[in-house]
Amino acid sequence: MGEMSWSGRRGVALPARAMSDPGVTGRFGGYGGRYVPESLIPACHEIEAAFREAWEDPEFRNRLDTLLTVYAGRPTPLTPAWRLSQELGITLLLKREDLTHTGSHKINNVVGQALLAHRMGKRRLLAETGAGQHGVATATAAALLGLEATVFMGERDIERQELNVLRMNVLGAEVVPVTTGSRTLKDACNEAMRHWVSSVDDSYYCIGTVMGPHPYPWMVREFQRVIGDEARVQCAAALPVGVPDYVVACIGGGSNAAGTFAGFVDTTARLVGVEAEGGAAATFGRAGVLHGFRSLVLQDDDGQVKEAHSIAAGLDYPGIGPEHAHLRDGGRARYVTVNDDEVVRALRCLARTEGILPALESSHALAWVIRAAKSGEIPAGSTVMMTLSGRGDKDIASIREML
Ligand SMILES: Cc1ncc(COP(=O)(O)O)c(C=O)c1O
Asked: Which atom of ligand 1 has the smallest separation from the CA of 359?
């Protein structure tokens, strides 16, 4: 990957202010938009109008900031990975989203959307979940604000993320098993959307990542921007030159990466999104429409959506958020893949060198950092800021034999 690909000169123009408001069409270059049944168009308009109004309202922003601070535990620390940095010959800083209430970055977005739903007078939150982290965050925010929560989850993910299913139950959410298709995240999204169509008057669909019809990809990125904004300030204090050489995050739909990149897109930092090899839509996907938006999607020769496979339930998704597709085309961000074995090794490595147990999803980002530092792709002496999107307690049972 040469300099060209980092500098946004691959022929596709990025907006003057990259990662800004995509306007009423919700387009990021040729991606994004709103591809939903007629009956959902008014709901999307209503959410966009409500979000624009709330985002400009100091009272809403103040309420959100307060909850993120006194409830969700922000700001999260930026922790140097002391021993691993030494081993790899780089400076690795970890943005600790694993330390938030409920244990992942998903809470940032959910608190924002739940407040919005409450403001719009909705009674119930609907959500899809893969790893269960978004489901747990939704169940949590619903309890906090006195809303009901219904969470759609593939049967296969229910089996491998049992702990999170129990947490959702205890929090009072209804977990609906999805038995269609591969019984994972894509199918849970299908089912949640179908349900939304039939209950749009009193239910708010709280999407867990930067996907779905406009305004979701933009709105979710804005709710996750807090990761990148905090990390930018923390890097300025921690690093001699203020900005890291590399900013790295794992990608399922792409919300923790979008929030992280938003804080650094206007700097010299190289932005790297790390996908699961079996769910690598930015790397192997082609343009197509999925779950209400146009983006890069894993497809077969007939244009049928292919099943994604990843050891991490949260990365088992055949698409990628539309803004990432645009950042990739423009060359401002680079997308790479790692395989399941590297991921489990990375999880064990961080646990043993730093005493931090990362989620399998977050371990993807780390696996690439380890590989790239060892191969010299990340030159010795570089500074790397990596978002550690969540904690790994939920994964231990399912990877017992591999540890
Ligand atoms: C801990 C963790 N990290 C990352 C992800 C991937 O989601 P996203 O790409 O939207 O950040 C998930 C999804 O469930 C997750 O639970």
From this structure: 1
What is the CATH classification number for the domain harbouring 92?
3.40.50.1100
Residues 276, 355: one domain? Answer: yes
Q: Is 352 a member of any domain?
A: yes
Cα 90 from Cα 131, distance rounded (Å): 31
Mean pLDDT of the chain: 94
Q: Give the pLDDT score at 18.
A: 84
Nearest CA to ligand 1 atom 5: 314
Least-confidence region, from 12-21, 151-160, 252-261, 390-399: 12-21
On whether both 47 and 172 belong to a single domain, the answer is yes
* 8, pLDDT greater than 60: no
273, 298: one domain:
yes
Average pLDDT over residues 62-70: 98
Per-residue pLDDT at 217 exceeds 80: yes
Residue 186's domain comprises 27-68+106-205
9 in a domain, yes or no? no
Structural domains counted in the chain: 2
The pocket around ligand 1, CB under 6 angstroms, is made up of 104, 130-131, 133-134, 209, 250-256, 314-315, 359, 361-362, 389-390
Q: Is the pLDDT of residue 5 over 90?
A: no
User: pLDDT by residue (tens digit) across 229-285?
Assistant: 999 999 999 999 999 999 999 999 999 999 999 999 999 999 999 999 999 999 999
Q: Residue 173: CB partners within 8 Å, gap ≥ 6?
A: 135, 138, 139, 142, 149, 150, 151
Does any domain span residue 10? no
Residue 389 annotated in active site: yes
- Both 247 and 377 in one domain: the answer is yes
Of 205, 239, 268, the last residue of a domain is: 205
Q: Assess if residue 14 is contained within a domain.
A: no
| Strand 174-178 to 78-80 pairing | unpaired
